[in-house]
């Protein structure tokens, strides 16, 4: 069964027990979230408190997304107006787990948060 979405047919269809989502629709769905992230980071980098920011580290589960990484690099990387060096750990989700474990073992691990 084929459904009409975004005024187009064939972007999503049901094949037996499988839902098939086209690349176009998948990117559209991701961009609903990614656009908000990019706009928020732009607001942060444009603020006076972040003036001179040279580095950005992507961490957490969603930062494993190649689509998110590409959009972040395009928007904020060294070839953008922000010229920020962007780092993505090999396993970004573990950055969150590691930080939580360190915080649990030693609550004074973070001395200041701005």
Structural class: alpha+beta
Strand fraction: 15-25%
Number of helices: 3
Number of beta-strand segments = 5
Percent in helix: 40-55%
Task: Give the strand order of the largest sheet, numbering strands 1, 2, ... along the chain.
Answer: 1-2-3
Cα shape: extended
Largest sheet: 3 strands, antiparallel
Report on this model:
3% of the residues are buried. The chain has 3 helices and 5 strands. The protein has helices spanning 23-46, 66-76, 92-105; strands spanning 2-5, 8-15, 18-21, 55-57, 85-87. The protein is α+β, with helices and mostly antiparallel strands and 114 residues long. The model has no long low-confidence stretch (mean pLDDT 89). The chain starts with a strand and ends in a 9-residue tail after the last helix. The strands form 2 sheets. The chain has a 3-stranded antiparallel β-sheet with strand order 1-2-3.
State the main characteristics.
single chain, 114 residues, three-stranded antiparallel β-sheet, two-stranded parallel ribbon, extended
Q: Topology of this protein?
A:
Layout: E1 2-5, E2 8-15, E3 18-21, H1 23-46, E4 55-57, H2 66-76, E5 85-87, H3 92-105
Helix pairs in contact: 1-2
Briefly say what this structure is.
The chain is an alpha+beta fold and 114 residues long.
